[in-house]
Design goal:
This protein is α/β, with parallel strands linked by helices and 363 residues long. It contains 14 helices and nine strands. Strands 1, 2, 3, 4, 5, 6, 7, 8 and 9 form a nine-stranded mixed sheet that branches.
Length: 363
């Protein structure tokens, strides 16, 4: 990219000299490493900066995604846009409760949730997104009611200990783990939002009775209970459990840190059942957002090439746009035998939690 192109992009900051200066520093740091990265940053900067008008450069973000996963990309957004982002981090469930309590008095502009279930619960508090913004993500990964849009894909998998098992030892369907031969060998995090979203998908695909039968079958096999996905994956690698029900990318974080000798791998069920449901982390803009333009700018940035490459390379999730270099250890979304479930139908989190309490999986 020539210097004239760079200057023309910087010029569209509407006089935001601080934003231009930050971009200049960012570009100088990137140029030595990769001119391609510079081009990507410039394109993203053009899309988030032009036309921002006179709106104050502020954004209040409620993030149900953990700080360790998303703060780096939020910081990149601050740097390229000049928008001051104030983030409240908590679990998706905690933020749902906060938003419901705050109602139309919430200071939040954007809710960035771990799963579509959490977004569905507060859908009544979200404003409509434009067709242009929704169209940045594929149809399956956005709200059918135009209230939220997916940011990254997260597949449900069975993580297994490679010293004890190979893929050929695992059942085609997640239903197979109710067999008594798996007694004492399973781990799960039943309070985790993504696990609950999988159970919600079961209720949609299988119905209430069959889902309850599955839960009772797993309970009969005395699963080890974990608070979240990370310790479940670690327990599988350590041989404390043989299999666990988790999101796919936690394993890849371990592989990145510890190498391919890590003694756990992911298994995508061969049957098109809830065991391989592909969920999304997604975001919506509050109806009462005071910084609507900044909020829209932020969502466009998250669905831009640089941000999607971040999710693919750094958090090992599935990107939702074309042109992103995917993690070499991941199958493509097209290779996963996933069920056809409308993510907008996963909003009955309270019903799922009631079922989990009924079978004794959660208190």
């Amino acid at each position: 990219m020539d210097r004239g192109g760079e200057q023309s992009i910087i010029a569209c900051t509407n006089g935001n000299d601080g934003g231009s200066a930050r971009l200049g520093v960012l570009l100088r740091g990137c140029w030595a490493k990769s001119p391609i990265v510079v081009a990507m940053v410039l394109l993203a900067f053009a899309s988030v900066s032009c036309g921002r008008g006179s709106e104050s450069a502020e954004l209040v973000l409620y993030s149900g995604r953990s700080e360790s996963l998303v703060e780096p990309i939020i910081q990149q957004f601050r740097e390229v846009s000049g928008i001051n982002v104030n983030v409240k981090y908590a679990s998706t469930g905690e933020l749902v409760a906060t938003l419901m309590e705050e109602g139309d008095k919430s200071p939040a502009d954007v809710f960035f949730a771990q799963d579509p279930g959490g977004l569905g619960v507060v859908e009544g508090l979200l404003g409509d997104l434009s067709a242009e913004l929704l169209g940045l993500a594929p149809g399956w990964a956005r709200s059918p009611d135009s209230k939220w849009v997916g940011i990254s894909g997260r597949a449900r998998v069975v993580v297994y200990n490679t010293a004890a098992l190979s893929e050929s030892d695992l059942p085609d369907s997640i239903e197979g783990f109710t067999d008594a031969k798996w007694k004492g060998r399973i781990g799960w995090p039943p309070t985790n939002a993504s696990f609950q979203a999988m159970v919600s998908a079961m209720r949609v695909l299988w119905g209430e009775s069959r889902t309850e039968d599955w839960l009772r079958g797993i309970m009969a096999n005395e699963p080890e209970v974990f608070p979240k996905n990370t310790p479940t994956v670690q327990a599988a690698a350590d041989g404390e459990i043989d299999v666990g029900f988790v999101n796919h990318y936690y394993l890849h974080r371990f592989l990145a840190e510890e190498g391919e000798g890590f003694k756990a791998r992911n298994y995508f069920t061969r049957a098109a059942d809830p065991g391989s449901t592909v969920l999304v982390a997604g975001a919506g803009i509050l109806e009462t957002a005071k910084n609507r333009e900044s909020a829209e700018t932020f969502l466009r940035f998250l669905l831009s090439l640089p941000a999607q490459q971040y999710f693919a390379s750094q958090t090992h999730e599935f990107p939702l746009i074309d042109g992103v270099k995917a993690d070499r250890l991941l199958p493509s979304l097209g290779e996963i035998t996933r069920p056809d479930v409308d993510l907008g139908d996963l909003s009955d989190v309270s019903g799922t939690q009631a079922l989990l309490r009924k079978v004794g999986a959660i208190p």
